[in-house]
Design a protein that fits this description.
The protein is an alpha+beta fold. The protein is about 20% helix and about 30% strand.
């Protein structure tokens, strides 16, 4: 009997037929040209809330390598987090969903964990400019799908609390999708 259990979501693709991925070492400390790929909310293992910026190096020997920086949502870190978020045009928490891509210069350093394992850290970044999407790419973007508004509940029917929760959840999802 195999130690691997198949699930219903697995496909029949043979992962062992292709080449294995290469192992990445840390990149040397220095300045790297990159673009921001995304900004997202996250929480540390201890539960501390923060923002994580994902970068992609676009020039040189380490082209296409990813780097990350964490920006904490604590009273002590707030001035630094605000400074870095403002560099990306993010002025409040709700702006995170609409973060644009920027060309940046990363200052990357090498750190060592207590167990002796080295890792990279983005010490700082400087914005070089906004990534502009070419007009020919914009021409191929698909128009957002029109969403039907939720059906208004009929006053002659008594709804359960569960039915109201479902209706409110659907209405909120439709409102977010329309924005």
């Amino acid at each position: 009997m195999s130690i691997f259990k198949r699930t219903e979501t697995e496909t029949d693709y043979d992962v062992f037929s292709g080449e294995a991925a290469i192992e990445y070492d840390v990149i040397p400390p220095g300045e790297y040209q990159a673009i921001t790929l995304k900004v997202e909310r996250f929480a540390s293992k201890q539960g501390t809330a923060g923002y994580k910026i994902t970068y992609k190096i676009v020039v040189g020997e380490y082209k296409d390598r990813r780097q990350w920086s964490d920006h904490w949502r604590t009273p002590t870190a707030a001035p630094y987090t605000k400074r870095d978020m403002m560099k990306l045009g993010l002025l409040c928490d709700k702006d995170i969903e609409k973060a644009d891509q920027y060309r940046v210069s990363l200052n990357v350093v090498v750190r060592m964990r207590d167990d002796g394992i080295e890792y990279n850290e983005v010490k700082s970044f400087r914005v070089l400019g906004k990534v502009e999407i070419p007009a020919e790419v914009m021409a191929f973007q698909v128009e957002p799908k029109q969403i039907e508004p939720p059906v208004e509940p009929k006053p002659d029917k008594a709804y359960t609390a569960e039915e109201w929760d479902i209706a409110l959840s659907e209405a909120l999802l439709l409102r977010r999708a329309a924005e």
